């Protein structure tokens, strides 16, 4: 047996915009064991429920992560509304759906760029982020914020979108759809990318299920887990199918994300067609008394907000289980047995979001 | 400032930011904002860098990392704190694990406010930093080595690592 | 409105048996979370199958020891280390045991104590 050495990976590493630390135990070039260390971004924001009222806390919930920001605030207010038994206006549900799909588009484009950059494909990085600016422009025009929107509140949303703007948004998305098609075609059919990704980091369907994989990591292994199918917000009235790939390798996970962008555009289009008129918020009085596990599908997978209130303005407990946190055990299994040079690529195929994971 | 004699390189570290400011820094590098026109390149190696861009606030785990990076950047160096968390702790100021802004640990030259800081203000901050950098270069101002002597390590991670 | 949820209280001794049964029924582990209610700690195990949640709750004291379920669900180690580091509840037999180094926090077991910071009131100054 050859000698084992341990190589630290991160927290400050050129391919990672965020601090993730892994201790890789190597035998020659082969990774035999992986020990993740987290806590570089740990702020302890869940404990702020003691100091902030449940309505103010939406801003904190939104800042769990700057990429999945909208969906975090949406999941949080959804839980509160459920506990308080609020029937929020239908137009709000559609608006939330539209914004959450916009977040997904921006997150997937961001990932595509960072991922391509990690393999040295700088042109894909630049092009993906150029298209992403279009998405961010629309988000800014409709919510007022680029990455932190601040538009969700308990009982509704803060802004309405005019019918003209909605049509313009769909037209804009149609405009970038073929550019997106070009970009993903180049990315998915490039022979060197296929060489780097196919057959690397394989996660079997069974492992994915029992180790807790969610989102594109699970769907790349043939598991059709997509919380949008439970029909929260307006997803129950929209026709869509989760994108599933069956190979379980790095390429499959990338293909899921690339294809999901088109599903998102389709969902936004359907929402704009079906959105009813009406108010976008309602008056909320009282305070939540009860508990609820609020779920939503983030760009990275299923997120759970556990909310418990006791009838006072301050919640008793807010606990967030983010997709990256539950994707850590599958990542550990993926990395065992791979070669050192593949580690950055495999890590990025689960699209880690450390800000989310450590809160 | 009318022209730049040098191409300053930046190194970015995400302290305990929510990612919002980080992705805006990355957005600065891409075609829409394109800071490379100022000759600025984002590097991963502190020894190549002139400007240290930090997002997010100090917490228990990353203070050592920030010091290491800061001490390894050659003189003259400039620190830019991007986002309200890096300036003062922001909305997370009251969290138990947040010690406050970056200036509690290393000297900061430029503060960029915002939550999340907009790419325009980040570029403005970095361009301001270029002026500070030029000043420091001309006057041969060297930055002190930073150590964290008064900070007592928590007994729990004095040993560190999983078993 | 979304589907109502129920949480079944179980005893500490039942945890492993219930979890094994959940796995046999084809559930995946969604999360393990902890909540402090006065002096008690409620640990919530959440499982999912076909978008249906099954929830079990165990109520313990901080000095109590809970059994690890990482032998049944490999991925449980992240949650169990988290509960140990943030609440100070000892979990017995975790497959990858960080022994208190998973989270590095200024305050030991931050969620089990009341924390006041000196500069808390700065917005009122």
TL;DR of this structure?
By secondary structure, chain A is of the alpha+beta class. Chain A is built from twelve helices and eight strands. The longest helix of chain A has 29 residues, at 90-118.
- Protein chain pair with the most extensive contact, residues per chain: A-B, 45 and 40 residues
Helix content of chain A: 40-55%
| Global geometry of chain C | globular
Roughly what is the average pLDDT of chain C, rounded to an integer? 79
Kindly report the oligomeric state of this protein: heterotrimer
The chain-level mean pLDDT of chain A equals: 86
The total strand number of chain C stands at 6
Q: Specify the structural class of chain A.
A: alpha+beta
Which structural category fits the helices and strands of chain C? alpha/beta
The radius of gyration over CA of chain C amounts to 16 Å
Q: The CATH topology of chain C is what?
A: Beta Polymerase, domain 2
CATH superfamily of chain C: NADH:ubiquinone oxidoreductase Nqo5 subunit
The CATH topology of chain A is given as Cytochrome-c3 Hydrogenase, chain B
- List how many beta strands of chain A DSSP finds: 8
Strand order of the largest sheet of chain C: 1-4-3-2
Give the radius of gyration of chain A: 20 Å
Note the beta-strand portion of chain A. Answer: 5-15%
N-to-C terminal Cα separation of chain C, in Å?
Answer: 43 Å
Separation of the first and last Cα atoms of chain A: 41 Å
Can you tell me about this structure?
The complex is a heterotrimer of chains A (359), B (163) and C (125). Chain A has a single domain (4-358), classed as Cytochrome-c3 Hydrogenase, chain B, CATH 1.10.645. In chain A, 47% of the residues lie in helices and 14% in strands. Chain A has twelve helices and eight strands. Chain A has helices spanning 57-62, 69-84, 90-118, 122-143, 163-189, 191-197, 205-210, 215-219, 250-274, 323-335, 343-349, 354-358, and strands at 4-9, 21-27, 30-37, 152-153, 156-157, 289-298, 301-310, 317-321. In chain A, strand 7 and strand 8 form a beta hairpin. The longest helix of chain A has 29 residues, at 90-118. Chain A is globular and about 70 Å long. Chain B is of the alpha/beta class. Chain B has a single domain, classed as Rossmann fold. In chain B, the strands form two sheets. A five-stranded parallel sheet of chain B has the order 2-1-3-5-7, with helices on both faces. Chain B has a two-stranded antiparallel ribbon with strand order 4-6. In chain B, helix 1 (20-29) links the parallel strand 1 and strand 2. Chain B is globular, with a radius of gyration of 16 Å. Mean pLDDT of chain B is 79; it is low at 153-163. Chain C is an alpha/beta fold and 125 residues long. Chain C has one domain (7-111): NADH:ubiquinone oxidoreductase Nqo5 subunit (Beta Polymerase, domain 2), CATH 3.30.460. In chain C, 17% of the residues lie in helices and 30% in strands. Chain C has helices at residues 15-24, 77-87; strands at 7-9, 28-37, 40-49, 52-60, 65-67, 90-92. In chain C, a hairpin with a 2-residue loop joins strand 3 and strand 4. The A-B interface holds A 11-14, 17-19, 23, 35, 37, 39-45, 47-48, 51, 59-60, 63-67, 69, 110, 113-114, 125-126, 129-130, 132-133, 136, 145-148, 353-355 and B 12-24, 26-27, 30-32, 44-45, 56-57, 59-62, 65, 69, 91-92, 94-98, 115-116, 118, 161-162.
